[in-house]
Design goal:
This protein is of the alpha+beta class. It folds into two domains: 7-222, Rossmann fold (3-Layer(aba) Sandwich), CATH 3.40.50.410; 248-503, Thrombin, subunit H (Beta Barrel), CATH 2.40.10. The protein has eleven helices and 20 strands. The chain has helices at residues 29-48, 78-86, 101-121, 152-161, 189-195, 213-220, 241-244, 352-357, 366-373, 405-410, 497-503; strands spanning 7-8, 15-22, 54-60, 64-68, 134-141, 176-182, 205-207, 221-222, 248-255, 259-267, 272-275, 289-293, 297-306, 329-333, 378-386, 392-400, 432-436, 454-459, 462-472, 487-492. The strands form four sheets. It has a six-stranded mixed sheet, sandwiched between helices. The chain has a six-stranded antiparallel barrel with strand order 9-10-11-14-13-12. A six-stranded antiparallel sheet has the order 16-15-18-19-20-17. A hairpin with a 3-residue loop joins strand 3 and strand 4 (64-68). Helix 1 packs antiparallel against helix 2 and helix 3 (101-121) runs parallel beside helix 4. The longest helix has 21 residues, at 101-121. The radius of gyration is 27 Å and the shape is elongated.
Amino acid sequence: DTQKRRIRLEAGGALNVFLVLDASRSVGRHDFQDARNALSELVEKIASYGASPHYGIITFGTEARVVLSPTDPRAADGDWVRQQLEGLTFEAHSQAPGTNLAGALRAVYEQLVQQERGEQMRGLNPPPVTNSTRHVIILMSDGRANMGGSPVPVIHQIRELLSIGRDPRHDREEFLDVYTFAVGAEPHTGTLNALASHKAGEQHVFVLELPKLQETFHRMIDESSTLHLCGVSQEFPSAGERERNPWEVSVTITRPGRGQERCQGSLVSPYFVLTAAHCFGLEDSAAWMGVDIGPKQRRGVSALFLHPQFDLGGRRARGVPEFYDYDVALVQLDRAVRSSVTERPICLPCTEGASRALRLPEKSTCQDHRRLLLPPKNVEAFFLSPRRAAGLQRQRVLLKLGDQRRPCEADALRAPPYANVSSLEDVVTPRFLCSGGTEPQVDDNACPGDSGGPVVVTWGKRQFQVGVVSWGVVPVCHQRGAPSHARDFHVSLFEVLPWLREKLQDEDLGFLP
């Protein structure tokens, strides 16, 4: 019942979001800036779900100022809206000392009336704005109101305009949500509580606390219609490790009479897990394998696909005992994983879902994805490591793709198996990404059990897998003071796309040319 009453983010759903910001003297410059930045963060959060509501921006002191109307042609462009927010200054209202909260809400009402008239003039009857469009008002204020009268009757006017509460059989409450955030040193919480919506099982009144902002937004936004999106994670501090990394899986191979081997992997579609090929032997049977998706879900395996060009012993004749080129594998599950907040795929580059997550035009190409995710410089990324008592940890690294790439790769020959190898090209191919070392920062290093896990780049609050953890130069797991030549190598997914496209062709991922 409450599912339909939080902020619903649906592709194509008509939604107006009014951002109302108190710039009166009682709030002060510092709290105004915090509130403005919080609204910008919310716009970015909503955009990360692929939603494009129409925004209105209103600031107020003695008078209300309409910065942006929902009817503006650019009102649904989240990046442009954020620019407008970031350009707001406290000084715009500093000349007059009053606080006209009623005037600010009246400006929202007038924007709705103007939008209704405009739609009627275009022949839209009944006008969508007052019939089918949903509206959210987010008010950042200390709740003081020394001008313009009480703001509460204005909320009643807005409800009346939207025909909310008229018919007890259909109260239309889902068409308006009013959220209030208390800012300033001494907020009038009674006024803010009177203005906010009151709906069963939901919270609409908050105190603006920047450290808890992401958790607050999570409680405000209904994600039920966005569970199919790849690469969505919850990043607030109290989120569980499955909410932060819902694509993480563990692949176990139990070989009769020879014990177990475990590797990490990532859910890339409802039926497939991506991992490392070196975790498996040619004689391994799918019946020996199991996939754990968090602590409570286990899936059997119906098929295993190693990259056809992976050959661990392929260069032994040249004195290379282990060769990890094309070290990727796909594990097909016996049952599909149903997407939820704690179980959903990560975004694969060069797919339609990744294009939408990157907010690229419909005709974008794979090169556009590479340009954004792996530009020629040091790129911030992370891989996942199960640390037993500490749980699943994100290990931070820089992928060396600029002038530090060659020195990073050169350290590969310092690995003990390659002591007698002289040619770097016999060990490192263009299909590897390199991380580790101490410059310009000390990178985390992978442990043996981290093999097969995803190497992840964050872009616009979405997560994209760009590589698979493959091998490391020296075994420094759990050691302090790793040497500067402690490097890790990961297979770049951009370099194995033809194989991924072939094996995942029935997964409806929409691979790009």
